[in-house]
Amino acid sequence: MNLTQLPIISVLSDNVTVAQLDDVKVIRVIHDKANAAISLHGGHVLSFTPKGQDDLIWMSKEAIFNPEKAIRGGVPVCWPWFGRIADPAHGFARNNEWTLIEHRENDNGVIIVLGLEASEATKAIWPFEFEARLTVEIGDELRITLDAKNTDSKAWNCSGALHTYLNVADIASTTITGMGPTYIDGLQNAKLCTGEDTLSISAAVDRVYTQPENTVSVSDSQRTLTVTNSGHNAAVIWNPWIEGAESMADMNNDGYKTMVCVESTYHATSLEEAQTVEPGNAFTLTTTIKA
Predict the structure, then answer these.
(1) Which helix (H) or strand (E) holds 246?
(2) Does this model's pTM top 0.90?
(3) How many CB atoms lie within 10 A of CB 221?
(4) Cβ of 89: how many Cβ atoms within 10 Å?
């Protein structure tokens, strides 16, 4: 993603500007440590390029940037649920406009804080009060923290994921470790399976790993990316392969060759079985990505 070509709407500091990308506003960060872009639509990290590196984040060449649709690629925020346990799939956070709350910067990088709060639109889907903050720390590594506080008078349940699409040189030469031995296979009617210590992908993969290490490593022919998570109970690994890519209008047909999702996930099979958050408490999920 060429950040320098985006039309500038406003300048917030030497390192932070607001730019326009089709129909969405993007927080653009250009810093000595790294460049990044975050869409206000969805609170969605679109790009993270440390100095001297290729982008660590994969974006579809056919991604649609408008407020009516979730963005294909980047780091979608799946909340207040992950998956199809309620409607819409993956919750409403990735389809709502977030607000820029704060930006800070120093020699080590830039911190962007976005906010999303309950509205009539969100309560029509999920009838609870909340105050969500997404903190994006951009430096030698990318750290994303979702912190969703219960501001209601009653407890609510939620699950979620930071649905990271990683940019790899070639999926055929990519190996993944640290995901743990057991997984729920979404392509086999949620069958519980046991896998190998190292995962190589040569067909569609849709797995919820139930005993991941805190750090999952993704190695291709050029570099190793690490994804370190907290607040999770699972790691999701996904690649749609050629049939899946061809079925999605917002994904280029060969896009599966250069991406794999490794997601910090709090997984539940229903909202009733999801994490209970009492009034005044928060649901927190973090992912840290580096090369």
Answers:
(1) helix 241-247
(2) yes
(3) 10
(4) 13
